[in-house]
């Protein structure tokens, strides 16, 4: 289902991008209109103008999710392009007359490419519109009633048909780009050259999007059980109690899809159906499983996702789950769920629920009415007050998750559901790991895998929090990453401060506050390039024991993993990165910080005569997205500075943003 939605995103966000690229290509004809409007046939000039204008309008309406107005605009654009071609091919005396002027004749000779590109661009827009209109709505939509019973089914034949439409759209986009690439710029005024080059680049970028779509449509039938039943595990993470991959995993479901029909297993739900009495289990661990190896309570099914590398955390969850199922003993009505062969593991957090509800529609669930504006508060906070007994709360959350997934596969507004899934994947609130190598390669290509980025060069930064206080205070916590970076030759010197505020509102239910009560205890882990050199670090004074919850400072918890030696934090390697760790204790209404000064060697490279500094910043999917403040100081003598996304003040560049997704900041200059 997730893969289906990501490909169908062509009907919304991606579709508007395709039409936008087509519109940009087409408007290149407009730079020549001063010729044809003065002396060419009226059909040629007005046709190009109409086609360009209507495609612009189609792009706007599609980006807003309004398909009906886009129908008129797209067909009007096609009519305009046809009118322009008819005018150009006419035997008008005016056309003969205009060619007597050498400069104008040269430009008119290139109009044939413009018109051919216009025709292909409008055909591409028509194909895009067909996907948007019929994929998720109308009688030919890919989700339809199950002919063998209740509920809905994904129509695999229709998916294959739409894959063919995507291939046609891609051919038209390529053909449009080829036509504009064939234009002889020497025959045109210099002022139009940049526009034409931009149009060709837009066609190339659109082709990359369509290449992803084609690859996805080829894999989609198999993922949806077209070649036999598929089974996936859905892990529901609680981002109020952060773990590396997003949150403590409290609920799980097994989803089977057979020839497009999705069913949830009845015996799943709370992770404590397998984690009986939180008993740990001994299994072989990979080298990068540093957190799990060092924390005994992490050595079980529902608490093994401490690594921010989702492929690793997913693998550990499966291994622990299977080992726990083999050890499980049924007692009375407390049956042991079977742990099947899995074709994939998906991580989902409450923000995904909020994102998807406009497509699913509001509904009643026990004591609460589930709607977008309140669902996250219900799941992460209010449920602890409404159901103070753990078994009652787990039962309610289990029923909630099961009903939510059922409704997700039979949505009221599929288009909005698809758009929201795309956002959830891009923001890492939803992460995917597949067993099939080809399918996993596609997930990685789309950057849906939630992995630690493997960067061969440049700089890297990620802060991963592990909540070690046994509480849910990440629901209230706020994090700010302050990075002061100075370029020194080929190196980058960092002075970084990670600030966490404990904004808890008291009183709170007992099970919400947990072991540390109102004191927040975040273990902060700073991921940097593997050759980074630590200069100094500070996380406040060590809180004395026995631990006073009023102390604002550093604590050595978990023992060993966060124990400092002589003012130096512990260090380990994971995912090709170096990691420094420190745990803070922060009383209510106070802020704590973990500061580090370090050197990132060889972070600056030379490319085509320019110095290039590239910083990859990865995001942990927190309920409150962390704030990123970057101040970059370039060396003296830096000139011709290019810094997209930065505010510039001489050699000093700044970025201030909410970190909603993984991002790359790149600056280049000449010495």
Describe the structure.
This protein has 671 residues and is an alpha+beta fold. It has three domains: 222 residues, no CATH class; 209 residues, no CATH class; 212 residues, Immunoglobulin-like (Sandwich), CATH 2.60.40. Helix content is 39%, strand content 24%. It is built from 17 helices and 26 strands. Strands 11, 14, 16, 17, 18, 20, 21, 23 and 26 form a nine-stranded mixed sheet that branches. The chain has a seven-stranded mixed sheet with strand order 15-19-13-12-22-25-24, with no helix packed on it. The longest helix has 33 residues. The chain starts with a helix and ends with a strand. The N terminus is likely disordered.
SSE order and pairing:
Layout (H helix, E strand, L loop, with lengths): L1 H7 L4 H15 L5 H7 L2 H22 L3 H23 L3 H6 L3 H33 L8 E3 L6 E3 L1 H26 L11 H31 L6 E9 L9 E11 L2 E4 L4 E2 L19 H5 L15 H18 L16 E5 L1 H11 L2 E3 L2 E3 L4 H12 L3 H19 L5 H13 L3 E5 L2 H9 L13 E9 L10 E11 L2 E11 L8 H4 L8 E7 L4 E6 L14 E3 L15 E4 L2 E9 L5 E10 L3 E4 L2 E8 L9 E7 L5 E4 L4 E3 L2 E7 L4 E8 L1
Helix pairs in contact: 1-9, 1-15, 2-4, 2-7, 2-9, 4-5, 4-7, 5-7, 7-8, 8-9, 9-16, 12-13, 12-15, 13-14
């Amino acid at each position: 289902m997730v893969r289906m939605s990501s490909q169908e995103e062509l009907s919304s966000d991606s579709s508007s991008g395709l039409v936008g690229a087509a519109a940009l290509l087409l408007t290149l004809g407009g730079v020549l209109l001063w010729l044809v409007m003065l002396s060419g046939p009226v059909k040629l000039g007005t046709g190009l103008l109409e086609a360009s204008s209507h495609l612009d309008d189609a792009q706007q309406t599609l980006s807003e999710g309004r398909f009906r107005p886009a129908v008129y605009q797209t067909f009007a654009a096609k009519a305009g392009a046809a009118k322009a071609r008819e005018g150009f091919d006419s035997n008008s005396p005016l056309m003969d007359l205009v060619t007597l002027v050498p400069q104008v004749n040269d430009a008119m000779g290139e109009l044939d490419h413009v018109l051919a590109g216009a025709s292909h661009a409008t055909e591409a827009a028509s194909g895009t519109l067909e996907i948007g209109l019929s994929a998720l709505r109308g009688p030919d939509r890919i989700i339809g009633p199950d002919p063998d019973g209740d509920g809905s089914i994904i129509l695999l034949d229709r998916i294959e048909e739409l894959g063919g439409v995507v291939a046609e759209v891609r051919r038209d986009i390529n053909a449009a780009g080829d036509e504009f690439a064939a234009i002889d710029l020497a025959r045109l005024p210099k002022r139009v050259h940049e526009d034409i080059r931009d149009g060709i680049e837009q066609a190339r970028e659109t082709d990359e999007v369509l290449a992803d779509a084609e690859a996805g449509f080829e894999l989609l039938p198999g993922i949806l059980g077209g070649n036999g039943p598929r089974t996936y595990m859905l892990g529901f993470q609680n981002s109020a109690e952060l773990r590396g991959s997003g949150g403590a995993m409290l609920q799980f479901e097994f989803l089977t899809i057979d020839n497009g029909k999705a069913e949830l297993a009845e015996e799943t739900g709370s992770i404590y159906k397998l984690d009986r009495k939180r008993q740990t289990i001994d299994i072989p661990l990979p080298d990068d499983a540093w957190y799990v190896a060092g924390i005994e309570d992490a050595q079980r099914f529902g608490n093994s996702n401490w690594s921010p590398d989702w492929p690793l955390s997913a693998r550990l969850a499966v291994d622990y789950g299977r080992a726990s199922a083999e050890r499980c003993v049924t007692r009375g009505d407390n049956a042991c769920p079977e742990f099947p062969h899995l074709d994939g593991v998906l991580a989902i957090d409450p923000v995904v629920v909020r994102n998807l509800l406009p497509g699913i529609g509001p509904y009643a669930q026990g004591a609460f009415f589930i709607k977008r504006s309140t669902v996250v508060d219900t799941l992460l906070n209010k449920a602890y007050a409404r159901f103070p007994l753990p078994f009652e709360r787990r039962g309610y959350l289990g029923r909630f998750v099961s009903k939510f997934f059922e409704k997700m596969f039979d949505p009221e507004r599929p288009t909005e559901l698809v758009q929201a899934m795309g956002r959830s994947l891009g923001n890492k609130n939803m992460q995917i790991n597949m067993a099939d190598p080809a399918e996993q390669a596609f997930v990685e290509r789309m950057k849906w895998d939630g992995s630690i980025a493997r960067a061969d060069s440049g700089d890297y930064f990620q802060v991963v929090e592990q909540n070690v206080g046994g509480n849910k205070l990440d629901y209230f916590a706020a994090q700010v990453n302050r990075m002061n970076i100075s370029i020194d030759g080929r190196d980058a010197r960092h002075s970084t401060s990670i600030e966490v505020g404990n904004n808890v509102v008291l009183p709170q239910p007992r099970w919400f506050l947990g072991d540390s009560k109102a004191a927040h205890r975040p273990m902060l882990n700073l991921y940097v390039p593997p050759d980074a050199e630590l200069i100094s670090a500070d996380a406040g004074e060590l809180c004395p024991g026995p631990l006073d919850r009023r102390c604002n400072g550093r604590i050595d918890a978990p023992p060993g993993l966060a124990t400092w030696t002589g003012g130096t934090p512990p260090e380990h390697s994971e995912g090709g990165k170096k990691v420094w760790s420190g745990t803070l204790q922060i009383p209510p209404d106070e802020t704590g910080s973990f500061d580090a000064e370090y050197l990132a060697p060889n972070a600056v490279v030379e490319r085509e005569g320019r110095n290039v500094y590239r910083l990859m910043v990865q995001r942990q999917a927190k309920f409150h997205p962390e704030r990123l403040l970057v101040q970059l100081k370039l060396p003296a003598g830096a000139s011709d500075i290019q810094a997209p996304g930065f505010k510039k003040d001489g050699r000093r560049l700044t970025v201030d943003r909410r970190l909603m997704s993984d991002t790359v900041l790149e600056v280049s200059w000449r010495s």
